[in-house]
Amino acid sequence: MIQDSQSIKVKLNFNALSTLKEHSIVSSNTGKFKEIKKFQPNDATTNPSLILEAAKTPEYKYIIEAAIQEGINVYRQQKKAQENLIQVEKNQQILEIPNEQNKPFLFKELSLDEQKEALSYISDQVSVNFGLEILKLVPGYISTQVAARLSYDVMATQEKAKQIIKMYEKAGISKDRILIKIAGTWEGIQAAKALQQEGINCNMTLIFNLHQAIACAQSGIKLISPFVGSVRDWFKEKYPEQDFSGKNHPGVKLVSNIFNYFKYHKHDTIILAASVRSFEEAVELSGIDRITMVIPLLEELQQAEGLNLEKQLQNPNPSEKIHIDEKIYRWELNQDSMATEKLAGGIKKFAEDLDKLEIYLRQLLEE
After folding, report:
1. For residue range 31-46, what is the model confidence (pLDDT) as tens digits?
2. How many CB atoms lie within 10 A of CB 19?
3. Of the candidates 19, 126, 205, 252, which lies 20 to 30 Å from 98 by C-alpha distance?
4. pTM of the entire structure?
5. Among the options 181, 193, 222, 253, which is catalytic?
6. Cβ of 174: how many Cβ atoms within 10 Å?
7. Which residues pair with 165 in a beta bridge?
8. Is 181 labeled as catalytic in the residue annotation?
9. pLDDT at site 48
10. Between helices 337-366 and 48-55, what is the axis angle to 10°?
11. Is residue 85 predicted with pLDDT exceeding 70?
């Protein structure tokens, strides 16, 4: 009798989230550690919007304070390196510059350009410090984003990515656990291609178009993030009377098309379905390589006891091989109003939230 009861309990001891994890690797999209502990995702991804929200939470004050001091130290080290380079270019002897780590940092006395540079290092350190804490809770990757304002600058994106990797390595974290998150512009893809060739893995975010995705795969990018819910938002706003449920969901269609193309043509680039917000979206995308969801959806899936989600994406359909160069990329994006608007809007939103984070940090530095 006891054995029968235990057998029943084992059979019922599953839910929609646990069965989804059998088909897809689940990631979380949050900067809050308690939520990560609760749902135990494999990977985690952050962005300026999530970091801004978490940074203003009192329980994370210690992270901000440490990041400010560490960011100041990085800024001072960079200034020292720049001064030494000037000495070398002038064929002058490099002077030993005293250690300034314990010297008060008078932010208000810096020039506006120096303040901007210092805030850039400090905001990066804030993102990295949140990433370091998250890596204690997940066994896989953490995605940390390059400033969105650099989305059209190939060299600046590469330099910023390398700086972020240095910050992680200084804390003892191998670059193998880091994904550098870069917007999927043509310039962003070229920067990521160069970084991948140097062994720095990238997550191309704000993917809204099949040709955009193929350009990433051709460039050897480690992972791409097509946005599921955001695609549906655009179509729902433009065509409010249409039914976008189930297989008619345009975001699900986009990710399914990318999945079919990548698997049929044997591209190694990982597909992370991002901006997944509804139960229906999670059901339709079961079987995708990776999936990242908002916390309320993770909660809903976990509470769906006894529900077994079947694998939906598995057998790719044949498709013709497509080669993407810059002209084709720009033309195809131009022809796709949704992708053009959502890419630009996403970059704008991330840039605005980074500005807000830096304003918040500025206020702390000026106190």
Report:
1. 888 889 988 999 998 8
2. 18
3. 126
4. 0.90
5. 181
6. 9
7. none
8. yes
9. 83
10. 30
11. no
How many Å apart are CA 204 and CA 222, to the nearest integer?
8
Give the orientation angle of helix 112-135 with respect to helix 48-55, to 10 degrees: 90
**How much is the pLDDT for 130?**
94
Residue 54 is predicted with a pLDDT of 85
End-to-end CA distance of the chain: 68
- C-alpha closest to that of 207 among 25, 313, 346: 346
Q: 118-175 pLDDT, tens per residue?
A: 999 999 999 999 999 999 999 999 999 999 999 999 999 999 999 999 999 999 999 9
Q: What is the rounded distance in angstroms from the CA atom of residue 255 to the CA atom of residue 292? A: 13
CA-CA distance, 151 to 354, in Å (whole number)? Answer: 13
Residue 330 has pLDDT above 50, yes or no: yes
326-334 vs 337-366: helix axis angle to the nearest 10?
100
CA distance 84 to 78: 10
Average pLDDT along the chain: 90
CA 68 to each of CA 64, 167, 267, 361: distance values in angstroms, whole numbers, following the listed order: 6, 13, 41, 8
Q: For residues 54 and 35, is the Cβ–Cβ distance under 8 A?
A: no
List Cβ<8 Å contacts ≥24 apart for 230-239. Answer: 230/275, 230/342, 230/346, 231/275, 231/338, 231/342, 234/338, 234/341, 234/342, 235/338
**Residue in 71, 134, 152 with CA at minimum distance from that of residue 105:** 71
Determine how β-strand 290-293 pairs with β-strand 142-145.
unpaired
Q: What is the dihedral of CA 200, 205, 210, 211, to 10 degrees?
A: -60
Which pLDDT value is given to residue 14? Answer: 87
